[in-house]
Amino acid sequence: MSKTTTAKDGATLVVKQPLDLRDLVVRYGFIAVTVLFFIYFAATIPAFRQSSTMFSMLKFTSVVAIAGLGLTMTMVVGGLDLSVGATAGMAVTVSAMTMVIYAQQGWVAFVAVIVAGALIGAFNALLIVSFKIPDLLATLATMFLIQGLKLVPVDGQSVSSGLILRDGSVAPGKFTHGFLQINRGSIGPVPYPVLIFLVLAVVTWFFLSRTKWGRVMYAIGSNPEAARLAGARVGRYRAVAYMLSGVYAAVAGLILASRIGQGDISAGNSLLLDAVAVSLVGTSVLGVNKPNAFGTALGAVLIGILLTGTTMMNFPYYWQDVVKGLVLLVALVFSFTLSRKKQRFVAAVPL
Amino acid sequence: MTTAVEMRDITMSFGANEVLKGINLELEPGKVTAILGANGAGKSTLIKVLSGVYNDYGGTVIIDGAAVDIDHPTTARAYGIEAVHQKIADGIVPGLSVAENFLFEAIVNNDISRAASLRSLVPRAREVAAVLDLDWPDDVLRSDIYGLPIADQQMLLLARALVHEPRLLILDEPTSALSETEAARLFEVIRQLRDDGVAILYVSHRLGEIENIADRLLVLRDGIFVSDQTSPFDWARALHAMLGAAEADPHERTGELHGTETVLCLEGVQLLPKSTPFDLDFRAGEVTGVFGLLGSGGTELAHGIFGEERFRAGDMKLKGEQFAPKAPADAIAHDVYMVPEDRVAGTIIKDWSIAMISTFPFLQDVSRLSVLNPMAEAKVGRSVIEEFGVVAQGAADPVISLSGGNQQKVVVGRWLRKQPTVMVMNEPFQGVDVGARHDLAEKTRDVALAGSAVIVMSTDLEEIMQVSDRVIVLADGNLRHDAYLSETNREEILERLSEVE
Description:
The structure holds two protein chains of two kinds.
Chain A: H1 21-44, H2 51-76, H3 84-101, H4 106-130, H5 135-149, H6 177-184, E1 186-187, E2 190-191, H7 192-210, H8 212-222, H9 224-229, H10 234-260, H11 271-284, H12 293-312, H13 319-338, H14 341-347
Antiparallel strand pairs in A: 1-2
Chain B: E1 5-14, E2 17-27, E3 32-37, H1 43-50, E4 58-63, E5 66-68, H2 73-78, E6 81-84, H3 98-102, H4 104-108, H5 118-130, H6 138-142, H7 150-162, E7 168-172, H8 180-195, E8 199-203, H9 207-213, E9 216-221, E10 224-230, H10 235-243, H11 250-254, E11 262-270, E12 278-283, E13 286-291, H12 298-306, E14 313-318, E15 321-322, H13 328-333, E16 336-339, H14 343-347, H15 354-359, E17 367-368, E18 371-372, H16 374-388, H17 404-416, E19 422-426, H18 434-449, E20 453-458, H19 461-467, E21 470-475, E22 478-484, H20 490-498
Helix pairs in contact in B: 16-17, 17-18
């Protein structure tokens, strides 16, 4: 009865199946599309070829990418953090308040923003884990709360140097040089935001796919009951995912604040949808059909390439959303229409 | 000799996994052909090929002397092949009335207007019901299908299949949800159909049923027929062919184990709202079978020990110390493990390999500084495959590509290989074939022999007798009986179970 055949290559955890064209398209199609667009723009737009363009493209992508990486972690545990855009916007206002109104140093603003991001994540975790409110609804409520509450201490005004305060005095501080360096500084040709993005992408990828914590998070996203019965503390992991998401969104907000150089109250408004888009696009990369850090990073870069390329080809600004929509749509076709991963596995279950 | 349906050299693979390896079968009209096979032998796959669920099979299906391509359930139906699948829930549509369920195909095919009133459907539903002489009153036909007894739901599905006057009727474990009298009713119907000249393919694990109804018995093993008999059947030969080896009584190897050291102490534990609290000890070095009908408290007992939910009252001591797990993680930290009753919902994570499922509860074993080591994981996966006789290509196989019995070997094996202090197994043999059950029972006893306190919950007395040294009888949450198997017997156990308080 116990006839056992053990593959000699049992060391690999990747399911080996014969590849045909469709599988190849699902697995590498997205990367191929990214490379093709890159080559096309590089061939037709001379300015696109310059390395400074590359870096400015990555730099402007980094904010969305970092927020998307945080969001990806909440997707991995089966949720979705709708408050990332609002958290980044909060970060901009808190940075400005700390430095402009309270005349504190840049590092104080930095710490305040990170702590605030973690607190927002903890609040989401409280709603989701302890109050058992579904993820989307809880984070939607949080999103509105933050968007409104961040305006209370600044009376709904954008905070910039020379702001007249409630008591008639002039705000004493300004964005410090050090803080502005977050966006402007660079190591060699690599701007800090790009560096932060790349480091966080690698760290997140490693965390999710190479550590036992990441493994547990994926299990929770796929079958929370099975994870719990195997000894996973599901609530804690979900809480950590939301806190990390809050912190990542805060980091994205710090870069944004440093770029804008003032406490623009509308900052971060469009970030949520962009972050959701790159995370969803990321699920289709390599045909894995699940949220993953590498995919999210690549998704952000592809959208960055397309936006930079189309802008340089003098497409009007409103084409940007069309481009994002098309990229998302193509990614969804890869995931849902072309991929047969799901169907094949379901078909293999004997009744 | 005429044949209703003939199969020639049918093959079917999922990836590298060849499930059917050349099936040759002639199904004759007016005969009941039974197929017996362990889980994973390929029975379900064969049925799905015949009923058009899979369209990428190899080989030929011949009907009326012509090769046909069964590429879709509707094609199968057009050729007169009807299948009633094992899970009744897959066939009925909750939320619709009984009448609408009778007419479901017509509704799906738009033969019946969406706006048709329930009243107007009843006469048409009657026509379908008449196939099986189901004389159900109008108010039943108009009621929600949910309230219909399982057996009647089964009859409804059968009527729905028979209304097409099939040449071949496939029945997959049709009695699994039926009581004995309900099953007898089904058999009457089957005999009638057989006499009317329908070819019947009957798949079951229950030997008594096959003996009762089948004219011919085929044994499927590893995707190929290994035995072909006509009634009367030689059961020893059939079982030998099915399992590939004689089934040994596990007790023969280990003898009855009597543990001496009490590991887990239940004190004043109350399982159900109205049940009486009781004390109970579980000892290392023996298998305690907890026998009771569905809803008698076995699951509550398992959940309480594993920290999934608290007992209504009472305390536990583990090795003399207070033990109050608040979550499964707490129990696991004390080497108290559990195999849940629902394998798919409670253990399976889709897309995960055998290695990943095997290592999941003990990721620290295969990681250094929390970084996973894929080589170590694969090694654990391979050792589970080897030690527990999992039929698979390798540790990288997705666990859901395995048959039910082999999945269960993986999810039981991942705990047993850690030599638990207390091992709770809630219905570990459900949906597991005879061969896998035998292997699992043997491994379970080995672990007890090596010093674990093993607790097996089951609603099946045969399973309890096969795996346990000591038997506990639960009824309505009350402790009715506690004895070693050598001190008691089947009659006494059943008597204790049936006592009314």
